[in-house]
Amino acid sequence: MKKLLFAMALVASFLTSCGDDEFVLDPAAVGTAYYPLELGAFKIFNVEENTYLNNTAESKTYQIRETFNEVFKDQTGKDWYRVEISRRETETDSWRIIGVRTISKDPVNQSSGSLLIKENNRTVVGMVFPVLEGKAWNPNAFNTGYFPNPDDENLREEFSYKNVGKPFEASGTTFLTTTTIVKSDFENVLAESRSYEVVSVNQGPVHRYYKLLNFCNSNSENCDYQADEVYIVDGIERTETMISSGKVDL
């Protein structure tokens, strides 16, 4: 009986009443508030990037701006938000457009929903709702055959949630209610891959980390392999931290 009452209370926390016969998901409880979509909203990120080639690192810093500058409907009537991505090397430089992505929230019913992100001709399931600690999903649900053998557990990509509802601190700024989307976290003798994104309630993404390194090993060519040393053949490590946000009239 206690388990039944708990389950009923959990469902109730996800729903708010809009009338005698209509219920909608509470954005804060279900997690849709972690990724708001608003025309005219923009964010600026400081980026620190290290690139590696033949065990030599090159460091650079720059800024990225992401602006929701258009909304349109697809053939099914679903809203898609166009995000223009710009870059500048320093705060005094002019912005130059480097890319575009489109984002949509799949219709969210009383039990589930998802956030879809299209970029570089690939649609990724960026989030699933409701947001729950440890929940995992396939981000390539719309990319059949994206991997050589999607039935192989070692080749399947998986996203998951951790630190749901916890505060997150970056560059001296504390975001009180966040969730971390873990996109990759593994390391072996061949490579290291770690990637995550932190989203904050009513703010969206506020911090991103991406790392992919390929190591020299006993089967590698054109590198000085030493069993007791880490030799990075190539790779990249990048950190993006939001420093400001706002809204412009379009």
From TrEMBL:
Signal peptide as annotated in the record: 1-19
UniProt keyword terms in alphabetical order: Signal
UniProt keyword Signal present: yes
Protein name: Lipoprotein
UniProt source species: Nibribacter koreensis
